[in-house]
């Protein structure tokens, strides 16, 4: 039997209240080798500062924050939709920080986050989504299975948390 997982959008007040558990997920992902803009070691203060900025963006209406929780309310994963785009791109949004805690992987959390992401983007009037991920990682297959189209690869685009270069694959999805 599969454990129930709930995915939902959180508002500004709740986003601020989730900073500590979201920091736990981010730190775990970086420690597990995820290239998500942070380097090792990731100090807790830096992780909580990042999530405070996200909560502020949610409060300003610039971001949508989705969280996945288990039946006890523990946050297992998260993803964001960045709504704030230039004037000539009101139909588009960027997807950022798809994170699933290592203890919750391979349980359908990411797929559920992606399905909720599509619904939340549509509700915001977005019809084109864009994201990037490490080339050759598990996330590439995840996005392809969820209907995302590969746009291309940029070698040495970013660094892994340990400082090694990694390529980045860009994807898009029309809703």
Any overview of this molecule?
- With 175 residues, this protein is α+β, with helices and mostly antiparallel strands.
- 33% of the residues lie in helices and 33% in strands.
- It has one domain: Gcn5-related N-acetyltransferase (GNAT) (Aminopeptidase).
- Strands 1-2-3-4-5-7-6 form a 7-stranded mixed β-sheet, sandwiched between helices.
- Helix 4 links the parallel strand 4 and strand 5 (128-134).
- Helix 2 (19-31) packs across helix 3.
- The longest helix is centred in the first third of the chain and has 16 residues, at 44-59.
- 32% of the residues are buried.
- The model has no long low-confidence stretch (mean pLDDT 97).
- This is N-acetyltransferase GCN5.
- Pfam families: Acetyltransf_1 (PF00583).
- InterPro entries: Acyl_CoA_acyltransferase, Bact_Acetyltransf, GNAT_dom.
- GO terms for molecular function: acyltransferase activity, transferring groups other than amino-acyl groups.
